[in-house]
Amino acid sequence: MSAASHLHDALNKEHIDICGISEHWLFEENRHLFQSIHRDYDAFVISDFSLHPCAERRSRKGGVAILWHRRLSGRVTVVESDDDRIAIIKLITNNGVFFLIQVYLPTSRYGIDIFTDYVDRLDDLCTSFSLEGSVVLMGDFNARLSGPRIPLYQNSRGRLLQRCIDRHQLCALTTTDICVGPLHSYVHSEDGSSSLIDHIIVNSLNVDLVRSCDVLDHDFLDVSNHRPLLAELRIPHSTQNETCETISWISYRWVPAGDSKNVDVYRDNLDVSIINSALWNTQELCSKDDVDIFTRGLMNCIRLTSDRVLPKRKFCKFLKPYWNGQLKELHRNTWRLRQVWVSEGRPRGSNTRSFRLYKDSKRLFRNKHRQISEKHIVDLNDEIEKCADVDQKSFWSLINKRRKSSAGTVGADMNFNEVTIRDPALLALHWGNYFEDIYSKSNCNNFDSRFEKRVNESIVSSLCCDIDDNFEEFSLTDIKNVCKSLPCGKAAGYDPIVYEHLLYAPDTLY
Predict the structure, then answer these.
(1) Eight-class DSSP state of 447
(2) Comparison of pLDDT for 130 and 221, the residue scoring more
(3) Order of all β-strands in the sheet with 229-233
């Protein structure tokens, strides 16, 4: 913390919103010093676990921290990482969610196995957080990465980190042409050797939002061997109407474990609710307005009754669609071996049997998890590509499944003609142009004009047919039979009424 005055001046001069720090070297009882660096900034500080007051041997090393301007305090949430080399905050913006991860990965003095474990840890964090938003990695990675700005520079540690970066479609700004300033971010104080081991890594889809990236020169007040990195990321404002009504997602436990008690309670209470309501005395529905009023009243009876008497099912957003029994068993085995390792005091080293068995099982689980997840993504992309030209209904169903509220997730931004589009209205416009081009006339020699004429004639004839000629009468029994055939487990619409509401309803509803 000897460079605290330099950090204070840099926060003012560069107008920094979020600042990540590696190797602050503070003891656990001295973490509060970060709150006194600048009055306009809050901090989340993690000290090296070996610096705990009860530790037998205490030496100043390690430690990570994240500072943010207090105008962002209402949007920032601290995420516990249970690790002394990783600090995480969650930033909620008008256009999505960002997870900023400050890291200090092990140096070359540690074995490659320990470095690999931390890269796997980052891989897991990126996998988890990318489901909710965009991930930004920053800090001292102690790994050399190659890129347009510094080619043929990657080392063995860099190759491990690069595989993780490529897997999650991330990009190290410090290796791109966007970055300016000194080529290396670290200068050794003794032998003068330089290297680029500090990085700011963002989603490759967000690179166009990066206004600048700089490796700053040393200030005379800066006593660190690491040069500061500075990146400016402009987050666009969402154009969606924030006042629009949202649909709440509710799922009920209709028949848990084969027990129909919930269904019987719902049926009896709905029967009483309908009889006691004004709907029971309705004589005739003479106009469209009468039908609308009656329908809204009926939906209110169904919704209020189900909310009152049915237990709700909690939505587990962390469940992955590719999770299977094999992954479940490997994960359980890893958890069991970890409990054994923790109970022995977390010993390390290849000579420790519990540590070796735990790491082997963890490595096996991660390899299998990575293999199955990547295969799932490949299969999903192939299915989307296949449906794009064949089945529009299936295509949009798959696209909507992959859409999230965040700008960093798949489906929320797309690349059209080398331009990244994030605005929902522009996305709809470009998709419309895409399909218009597909189904428009072209100069192709294989265009079948006779088939086009036949399709147009069939459409015109179907629109001109007399509706009364195709009318068929239906009875109350037919309606009941249709309701009994409705599939269960489907999502609700705007009402929000699901098939089970009708399937398990009493005869009074009909």
Answers:
(1) -
(2) 130
(3) 179-180, 210-215, 229-233
Neighbours of 121 (CB within 10 A): 18
Model pLDDT, residue 108 = 85
pLDDT at residue 467 tops 80: no
Q: Is the pLDDT of residue 485 over 70?
A: yes
Tens digit of each residue's pLDDT (9 = 90 or more) over 40-78: 899 898 887 665 555 555 455 678 889 999 999 889 999
In DSSP terms, 96 is beta-bridged to: 93
| 428/423 Cα distance (integer angstroms) | 9
SS3 state at 41: strand
Contacts of 98 (CB under 8 A, 6+ apart): 90, 91, 133, 134, 135, 136, 235, 408
d(CA 407, CA 427): 12
DSSP 417-442: TTEEE--HHHHHHHHHHHHHHHTS--
Q: What is the pTM of this model?
A: 0.60
- Spatial separation of the C-alpha atoms in residues 336 and 329, rounded to whole Å: 11
DSSP β-bridge partners for residue 170 = 203
Q: pLDDT per residue over 336-354, tens digit each?
A: 998 888 888 878 777 888 8
What's the alpha-carbon Rg for the chain, to the nearest Å?
A: 30
The two tokens of residue 48 are 């090296």
In the chain, how long is the greatest CA-to-CA distance? 95
337 near 357, Cβ under 8 Å? Answer: yes
In order of start, what are the domains of the chain with their CATH numbers? Answer: 4-233 (3.60.10.10), 251-315+472-509 (no CATH)
CB atoms within 10 A of CB 142: 24
Q: Which of 87-101, 241-255, 480-494 shows the highest mean pLDDT?
A: 87-101
State how far Cα 12 lies from the chain centre: 33
Q: Phi then psi for 95, rounded to 5 degrees?
A: -120, 10
